Structure formats: structure tokens, C-alpha cells
Amino acid sequence: MSESVSGNASSMPSGGRLWLVVTPPTPPRYYPQGPGAVMVAPDGHFDGTAYFGTNSPTSIGDYQLRLVLVDPAGDSTFSGYIATGNATGNYPGLAALPPGAKILARVQVTRKQ
Fold it and tell me: What is the pTM of this model?
């Protein structure tokens, strides 16, 4: 199930990139949302899409949607994850956020169907 996400970001550091990252109820993994970092407009507005599980009934439950700020190395980690997933069709999630990643916001999302 996918949902549109929008928001505003201010005081972005030079070289910083914002990513939407979903964390499912179990296992504790981090799923960067593609196709890449969200594009932040000059006024700070951004739009993106987040995916909460698959079409399986086992995907029902609570998730966290996180807005994560990363440096160029973290952006490369997330971009590499997306590229590998696109090539293989396998998105296993990451065991941890990249070093230096900063969670700017988090929202609890409950998927009911």
C-alpha cells in the first residue's frame, strides 16, 4: 500500500539530503523509499511516496514513517540500496541507518487493510 507524503523542511545543511524511511512492526529494519531522496523546493516544500508493506494481509499493522537527513555518504548508501533492489526485485531493508543520519521527524502509521 502506498501513500502520498508532503511536508516542509527548513534550514537544510549544504549537501544534506532528505529521505523517507519506513520501519515496519517486525523485523526492525529500515526501508528507504525510492526512487531517491525527496526533492525540496526553494520554499522548503517536498512531496514523496511511502510504501507500507506488500499486498499481503500480513502487512497490516503499525509502521513508522521517518524523515531522515543524510550526508552525501548516507545518500549513497540509500541510493545503492534502491538501485540493488530495482535490479534484483529484493528489498530486504537495512539493519541500521547510515552513520551520521539524523531523524528529523517520525509519524506512526497504522495500516488497517
Answer: 0.91
